[in-house]
Amino acid sequence: MNLKEQLKTAVARAQELAKAAEGRDLTEEEIAEVGTLDGQIKDLRAKIKKADDASAQLKGLAADDGDAPDDDGDDGAGEPAGQPSAKAGGGRGGKTRGTFGEAFTKSEPYTAFKEAHPSGVGQGTPVEIGRVKVADMGGFFSGRKATLGSPLANIQPTRMPMVDMVDRDRLTILDLIGRGQASGPFEYVQVTGVTRNAAIVPEATGPEDAAALKPVSDMTTQLAEAKPFTYADGYDVTNQLLSDAPAFASYMDNELSYSLDSVIEDKLLNGAGTAAEPAGLLNTTGVQEQNYDVADQTNFVYDPTNRADVMALVKAIRRAMTKVNRLNGGTVTAVLMSPEDDEAWDLLQDTNERFYGQGPFGTGPATSWGRTRALSERLSPGTVILGDWRQLQLLDVEGLSIMAFNQHKDYAQRNMTYVRAELRAMQVIWKPNRLVVVKPASS
Fold first, then answer.
1. Could you give the CA distance from residue 145 to residue 154 in angstroms, rounded to a whole number?
2. Rounded CA gap, 373 and 364, in Å?
3. Whether the model pTM is above 0.90
């Protein structure tokens, strides 16, 4: 019963005792009950009043406009109505709120541009909107797959067997890796191998007793350098779109999720490790390999439509997991594969043409030997990477910034503006041996 129902019951019992007292003397038990009812009714009324007050307060809070401070004429520092204050992140380099596009269109440089050109930009008018920091690394990664909750890496949680009718977005490498912050370049030690020599040591029987020597674990390492790089992309927009803040914000939110994600994923995997770009996972010494044979032993070419090749890959993935699990504390958090291999995995059938997986009418998490399956367009069919993806991290250095100008080619004459987005960050691979590249054997 809720509080009001309890109060109603207690009052009814008190009325019943009062009616009984009119015709006779109350018993000792009834007298004691009267004292109990008196305290109970007072207590329930107090609780109900508090609950009603809290309910009224919540209604007022729910009706409040969360953006009200920015809609007023005074934002706390004398800014015009609708313009975010520096404390709210509207200025250069400050913290931001909302989407990337909204953070840019609500910034001081963009607001000043709008005030200077309230009716849009005419042909040949110079446009230069300064750099605006719209997010740090946490903001850049915020809003990714809602099913992922680990603070170090976005790993899909283990799910027990059941009828799963939840639709999930496909995961990418950016949903798997860890992330953090850094202030500049640094050198670090990559652990490529560890030999654990821990053992029980007996008491020494004398100074020459070799059996009593304390064991020492061997660790194979190499020196690596982490340097910040700028991941950037540009967009051509019309001056009319640039002047329409809501439309421009929507456009930027869509484009940023495609272009910057694409270049970051490419460098995380395929970076050459030169002065111009960081070393990607596939070009890092110490990453383990697991090879398998394909049907075409002449050219060593994997065919995702060949069932024998796909089954060879399936078995090789399981063997590669053992290479990671054999390491002390090693764990496989996800399996990254190409879209072609993901398709081949889903189409696997037994001799009765029954699908091994969910089939065309099923839903549920895409897994590989119980581990999360993620996709990458940067991997060629037949090549799979698995392991502890938390060892690969993207560290924020300066965050995400956007700037716009038309001093680019002949854009001023064409009423076009060049918008550039940049993310300053660095990537590190702490323990390369916790990751395995599975690929066809070659000569």
1. 8
2. 12
3. no
Over its length of 443 residues, how does the chain's per-residue pLDDT go in tens digits?
A: 788 888 888 888 888 888 888 888 888 888 888 888 888 888 888 888 888 878 777 766 665 544 444 444 444 444 433 333 333 344 444 444 567 778 888 888 888 888 877 777 766 677 778 777 877 766 666 655 543 334 445 555 555 444 444 445 567 888 888 888 888 899 988 877 666 666 667 777 777 777 777 776 566 788 888 999 998 888 888 888 888 888 888 888 877 777 788 888 999 999 988 888 999 999 998 899 999 999 888 888 899 999 999 999 999 999 999 999 888 778 999 999 999 999 999 999 888 888 888 788 876 668 889 898 999 989 999 999 999 999 999 998 888 888 888 887 788 778 888 888 888 899 999 999 999 999 998 74
Alpha-helical regions (H) of 227-306: 239-243, 245-270
Which ranges of 82-233 does DSSP label H, i.e. alpha helix? 100-105, 108-116, 137-141
Q: Is 233 helix (H, G, I), strand (E, B) or coil?
A: strand
Contact 92, 132 (CB under 8 A): yes
E strands within 305-441?
A: 334-337, 367-368, 371-375, 384-387, 392-405, 416-429, 435-440
Bridge pairing between strands 392-405 and 384-387: unpaired
Amino acid sitting at position 185: P
**d(Cα 411, Cα 397) in Å, to the nearest integer?**
32
Query: Using CA atoms, how far apart are residues 285 and 409, in angstroms rounded to an integer?
Result: 42
DSSP-derived 3-state class of residue 271: coil
> For residues 62 and 365, what is the distance between their CA atoms, to the nearest angstrom?
36
Alpha-carbon distances, residue 128 vs 158, 246, 402, 407 (angstroms):
49, 19, 12, 8
Structure-derived torsion over alpha carbons of residues 329, 334, 337, 343, reported in degrees to the nearest 10: 140
Q: Compute the distance between CA of residue 436 and CA of residue 199 in angstroms, rounded to an integer.
A: 29
Which DSSP string corresponds to 53-76? HHHHHHHHHHHS-TTHHHHSS--S
Spell out the residues 6+ positions from residue 420 whose beta carbon is closer than 8 angstroms to its own.
232, 233, 234, 235, 402, 403, 404
